[in-house]
## 1
Amino acid sequence: MRGVWVALALAAAIGGRVDAQSVGPARRPKPAFRFSPEAGLGIRALWTESVAAKQERVACLGASVRNDTVFVSRILALQPDQADSMSIASESSVERCGPPEWAGTLHTHVALYTAELPSTRFSAQDRGVMLRWYQRWRSDGVFCVVYSARDAHCEADGVVGGMRRTPPTMAR
């Protein structure tokens, strides 16, 4: 994937901790993520359902970028039909969660990675889904993985130091 990725965290809407990492060798400023109360409640419900089912869940993210901040306004939980063993229907999420209505996807990690915690980062399979999303929509995207009732890791492409860059070009 081309472009600069910015690692961010689920914000105050669900009361989570900040999970940010440096970006590039110059340590460019990181944009903030803000979640509306509606999005926060939807994410919390998705997490609760995911834990109860002991399966991952996925949702579309409605987001906009203003200055150096990504505003997530809403989510749309997708049904886990035609899903893999972890109940993530990646192909349907790629098709359903595109612009202009949606800016990317969010999914849960519930399987334990350590004795106490699921993976707090995107897996190689997650990155593959993100790449397919970019190839399909040829647009900057917003992606989150929720790994507890209060915490997530989010990334946004195209927001660097408060400036929107042009969408990435993908090799065919």
Note: Confidence is low (pLDDT under 50) at residues 1-25, 83-87, 160-172.
## 2
Amino acid sequence: MRKLAILAAVLLATAGSAGAQAAPSPSASPPPPYGAPIDLARAENAIAAAVAEATRHGWTMGVAVVDSGANLVAFARMDGTQLAAAVIAEHKARAAAAFRRPTRAFEDAARNGAGVLSLDGAIASAGGVPLIADGKLIGAIGCSGGASAEDETTCLAGAATINGAAN
């Protein structure tokens, strides 16, 4: 019976995604290689920029930064943020680091019927963004507390302190 349930789940996942998924573009650039882990000062700067962005919009967020090995480096939870945001922000950051891509990719894939929800450690919600310095992944930032687009906007502001900086 268990084998039948697994087979049915696989068939449903592949049938729903067969027409919706496009083949990867051969010109798409590969994800960045892993680099040395982010240091605390840079992690805190990214968090400060993310918190400033959230404050500017009137949002309350949990913001986590992990290193290139997906280990927590720094975290902040704004006053009034839902308690679950702490765990979710860290999960988003860990997923962005481990998979070397924004968690928006998983949200988009899930929306298109892909079976990404079965990937261990994935989270199908925007708000996790890799942190890239000198072309290498040094960590990731994750934000939670609002709608997925708000979480992502907050993360992008934090990531800009590293990804947008001259390295």
Note: Confidence is low (pLDDT under 50) at residues 1-27.
